[in-house]
Amino acid sequence: MENRATRTVENQARAVALTNLRRQLRVADFAAPVSPARRAALDNLFRKSVIVPGVVGGGLVSPDGTITYSARHIRIGAKVQHPRILAAVLAGTVTRRVTNVPTWRGQKNVKVLQILAPVRERLSGKPIGVISLDQDYGVVSVGAGDAHIRLAVILAIALLALFVTLLPIMNRLTRQLEARNARLRELADERGTLLEGERAARAEAESVQRLLAEQNERLRELDRLKDEFVSLVSHELRTPLTAIRGYIELLLEDLDPSEGSRRRYLEIVDRNSHRLLDLVNDLLFLAQVEAGKLAIERKPIDLGKVVEECIETSSPAADSLGIQLTAHLGRVPKLEGDRARLAQMLDNLVSNALKFTPEGGRVDVRLDARDGAAVLEVEDTGLGIPADEQGQLFERFFRSSNATQSAIPGSGLGLTITKAIVERHGGRIEVESTEGAGTTVRVSLPLGVVREAETPARELAA
Description:
By secondary structure, the chain is an alpha+beta fold. The chain contains 9 helices and 13 strands. Among the domains are: 142 residues, 2-Layer Sandwich (Beta-Lactamase); 163 residues, Histidine kinase-like ATPase, C-terminal domain (Heat Shock Protein 90), CATH 3.30.565.10. The strands form 3 sheets. A 6-stranded mixed beta sheet has the order 11-12-10-9-7-13, covered by helices on one side. Strands 2-1-5-4-3 form a 5-stranded antiparallel beta sheet, with helices on both faces.
């Protein structure tokens, strides 16, 4: 506290020295000891005009250390006793020190706080001398004691005001914290309940998952047994059906032309046995696909000739139904594939198109090469397929609602077999259909690199 008061006095003295006194000092006051007239003016300045309390002495010192003025006149013209301190002050350092000096009032060995401050020319900033002010140290001590008391009172009042101000705030914050703690406890209890429910749900889910896994395993086993049963039954049915059809053909050949009724009956049996044999063959084919045993004999084939043969085979059926069957063949290179399987695929597509196209309709078969693939399209103007059923077209035994309502015969295996053949050749199959307007089935097959020439462009019409 005492040091703080001392610094305050020092700042006051510096302000007086650099502001009040310097405005009234002259450069000549530092050049040589002042004249009696000037000394009287400086006495009035130092003894009466200085507003810093407790000033008991002061003076001016030239740069060479000569005291040019002192409130104690006896010291005028003498040299300073501490030249190093003078040099430091002239360099710009304001110096303070505690010492004992006699006062201009005649008092001896008075303890003072001595302040030394440099004085410079206004324009050049060159030091022209030093101002010295001596302040009674007792005044400084008394000021420090008073300041201590005042500061203690101020701190006490400030603390009291702070307490009064913060008390309602602290009460409000305490209530808010208590409410939040209560809410956190509620949330913790809720979280515990949720965690318990989650553990129970997880245990139940794991149990259900195990049950589903067991059921799936049983279903896969049943599916495998079903496939084996279908394959076995189909294989066992194929031989007797083939024999039945053979004997029916012999009976038809040996039948007398006059026996029209018997011929008609035998032809009905022949058609149904043929249909049953086709169904058995389809089931055997699907069994091979499911078992991954579908054999594909890849050879260079001319897909255009396959289309021509299919059109030629299907033309009589199209004519009998009153449907225009047309083929448009572009230049397509030969591809690597199984001729018999691709012919089966095309027969299924054309047969479906003819079955679902009414009399007077049209079926177009187009073949072209696009982006390194042979693109085969079968487009009809038939019944079309409802949009919500198009995703199920390639499922086994699926038949559209239009086919069921129109009593169109079929097993629902044709498109499943067709897709299997296309994918076995590395291709893809797509269906675009509008109900009441017709259907387009598009098959893309990758072209193989073969040496044979491309199929020439041609167009066929049934």
